[in-house]
UniProtKB/TrEMBL annotation:
Protein name per Swiss-Prot or TrEMBL: 2-C-methyl-D-erythritol 4-phosphate cytidylyltransferase
Highest taxon of source: Bacteria
Family listed: Belongs to the IspD/TarI cytidylyltransferase family. IspD subfamily.
Function: Catalyzes the formation of 4-diphosphocytidyl-2-C-methyl-D-erythritol from CTP and 2-C-methyl-D-erythritol 4-phosphate (MEP).
Gene3D superfamilies assigned: Spore Coat Polysaccharide Biosynthesis Protein SpsA, Chain A
Protein source organism: Candidatus Ornithomonoglobus intestinigallinarum
Site feature: Positions MEP for the nucleophilic attack: R151, K205
Enzyme class: transferase
Pfam families: IspD (PF01128)
Pathway of action: Isoprenoid biosynthesis; isopentenyl diphosphate biosynthesis via DXP pathway; isopentenyl diphosphate from 1-deoxy-D-xylulose 5-phosphate: step 2/6
GO molecular function: 2-C-methyl-D-erythritol 4-phosphate cytidylyltransferase activity
EC numbers for this chain: 2.7.7.60
Length: 231
């Protein structure tokens, strides 16, 4: 059984919005609804669990109710940190394999979901990632360039990140988990090897107003391509 945990916390600060950015629209749907829809429509996903800030629970329930998502098993309150929120989602999940995904990444595709599940089953853990396009530098404490990272072996890790539930729960139980910025960081500390599944540069996290503009264009192009293929 495979569960998708949708981490839908966060604020609208960098969006310049006064509500959680997941409730903003992308095309004809809210960002969070489009994200959950991608997992709802994937044949390998058995259930989804949405996690959001406690004060956003009523709005999230109302927003999602109108879509009648059959795989949506639970909507649970998050915690004071991302790690705590994900743990709450893990505790509500039934799957042996869990996919942890950012609620603000609505452009994830079925193919990407299927491939990260396959790699998790094959290697024990997997995460979508794309090679860095820009040259990355490591700085010292004073903001001066210290060294150049090898672009050929440097990746931007996205979500979903897939694990066996027992393994990622163990990783979450280790000291220092609250400071982790993603679940791969926790898995690394626990000694879990994570396969990088080739992702897409279109699987962006919508964080700023310019991201919404880019997301709308990606969505428009995908719709056009789908219309052409249906002719």
């Amino acid at each position: 059984m495979v569960t998708a945990i949708i981490a839908a916390g966060g604020k609208g600060t960098r969006m310049g919005a006064d509500i959680n950015k997941i409730f903003l629209s992308l095309g004809t749907m809210e960002i969070i609804s489009r994200t959950i829809s991608a997992f709802e429509n994937c044949p390998r996903i058995d259930e989804t669990v949405a996690v959001t800030a406690e004060n956003d629970l009523p709005l999230l329930r109302n927003v999602l109710k109108k879509y009648g998502f059959k795989k949506l098993a639970a909507i649970v309150a998050g915690g004071s940190t991302r790690a705590e929120s994900v743990r709450n989602g893990l505790n509500a999940a039934s799957g042996d394999i869990v996919l942890i995904h950012d609620g603000a990444r609505p452009l994830i595709t079925e193919d990407e979901i299927l491939r990260v599940i396959d790699d998790c089953e094959k290697y024990g853990a997997a995460a979508l990632g794309v090679k860095c396009k820009d040259t990355l530098k490591k700085s010292d404490a004073d903001g001066f360039i210290e060294t150049t990272l090898d672009r050929e072996t440097t990746y931007q890790i996205q979500t979903p990140q897939a694990f066996y539930r027992r393994d990622i729960l163990r990783a979450h139980s280790l000291p220092g988990s609250e400071s982790a910025t993603d679940d791969c960081a926790l898995a690394e500390r626990a000694g879990i090897k994570i396969k990088i599944t080739e992702g897409s540069y279109e699987n962006i996290k919508l964080t700023t107003p310019s991201d919404i503009i880019i997301g709308e264009e990606i969505l428009r192009r995908r719709t056009q391509n789908a219309d052409r293929s249906g002719l």
